[in-house]
Amino acid sequence: MAPIEIPNAVIDALRHARHIAVLTGAGVSAESGVPTFRDAQTGLWSKFNPQELATREAFARNPKVVWEWYAYRRARVEHVAPNAGHYALAEMEKRVAQFTLITQNIDGLHERAGSRNIIELHGNIRRAKCFAEDVPVARWIDDGQIPPRCPRCGAYLRPDVVWFGEMLPPSALDAAFRAAQTCDVFFSIGTSGVVEPAASLPFLALRNGAVVIEVNPDATPFSASATLHLAAPSGIALPRVVECAWTADVRWNTARESG
C-alpha cells in the first residue's frame, strides 16, 4: 500500500482541535479478528438464525440457549487483542482537551486499549443486566444456573447489549449527538454508514462545521461528503494520522494492553 498522505489542512485542524469525536464500527473490531454478528454462527450455532437469538422474545422463550450463545461469543472476544487502530485512538485522546469515542461495537476493545471517554451505543457483551429491571449487575453468585440470577430480584440476567426491537440507550444517543454537534474534528471509522441513527452522526458533524475524516477501505454513502476519505484499515491509517499530527515517536505495540 502506498504511503498515506494527510493534507496539511487536516493536520492543522487536528493540532488545533479542542474536541475530537470518533465513531467506530464493526470494521475496527474485524481487524482484531472479532467475528461479525453473522460470522459468529459457526459450529453448533450454525443452525440458528442470529436474529432469532438477539431479541427479548427469544430470551423469554429459551433463556439458556441465548445466554450460552452470548457466552460463546464472549469467550471468542476474550481471545483477541486491540489492534493498532484501537491504540492510536487511545493515544489521540491524550492529545486533545476533549475526546469522545462513540462505538457501535460491543467487545470492549477500546477500553482495553486505553480509551476512557467511551459511549457504547449497543452495549457491551462483557457485562450483564437484569432482564426484569433492565439494571446493570456487576456481580452475581455463580451457582451453576444458566442464565445466572439477578442478586437483587432473582430474575434472569441477560447480556447488556441492545437487541433487535430495542431502543438505543437514550443517554448514550443524546451524548453521541451532542459530540457530533460540538466537535471540531469527527472521525467515521470502519462503519458501513447505513445503520441509523449512527449513520447520521458524520453528516451532523459536517453541517456544524467540523472537519470529517472517514477511515474505511471501502467507499460508503458518506465518502463523497467527507472532508478526507482514507481508503485503508484503521490499523494502518490511524497510527499515520497520529504520527503526522502530533509525533513521529509513537510506537504501536499491539502485543500488550494498557490499564
Describe the structure.
The structure is a single chain. This protein is an alpha/beta fold. It is built from nine helices and nine strands. The strands form two sheets. Strands 3-2-1-7-8-9 form a six-stranded parallel sheet, with helices on both faces. The protein has a three-stranded antiparallel sheet with strand order 5-4-6, covered by helices on one side. Helix 5 runs parallel beside helix 9 and helix 7 packs parallel to helix 8. The longest helix is centred in the first third of the chain and has 16 residues, at 63-78. The two termini are 32 Å apart.
Describe, in short, the structure shown.
The chain has 259 residues and is of the alpha/beta class. It has helices at 8-16, 26-30, 56-61, 63-78, 84-93, 109-113, 170-182, 201-207, 234-245, and strands spanning 19-24, 98-103, 118-120, 123-130, 136-137, 157-161, 185-189, 211-215, 228-230.
Given helix and strand content, the structural type is alpha/beta
Q: Strands of the largest sheet, in order across it?
A: 3-2-1-7-8-9
Residue-averaged pLDDT: 90
- Integer-rounded radius of gyration: 19 Å
Question: How many beta-strand elements?
Answer: 9
The best one-word shape is: elongated
Point out poorly predicted stretches.
Answer: 252-259
Distance between the first and last residues' Cα: 32 Å
Range of helix content: 25-40%
How much beta, percentage-wise?
15-25%
Topology:
Blueprint: H1 8-16, E1 19-24, H2 26-30, H3 56-61, H4 63-78, H5 84-93, E2 98-103, H6 109-113, E3 118-120, E4 123-130, E5 136-137, E6 157-161, H7 170-182, E7 185-189, H8 201-207, E8 211-215, E9 228-230, H9 234-245
Parallel strand pairs: 1-2, 1-7, 2-3, 7-8, 8-9
Antiparallel strand pairs: 4-5, 4-6
Helix pairs in contact: 5-9, 7-8
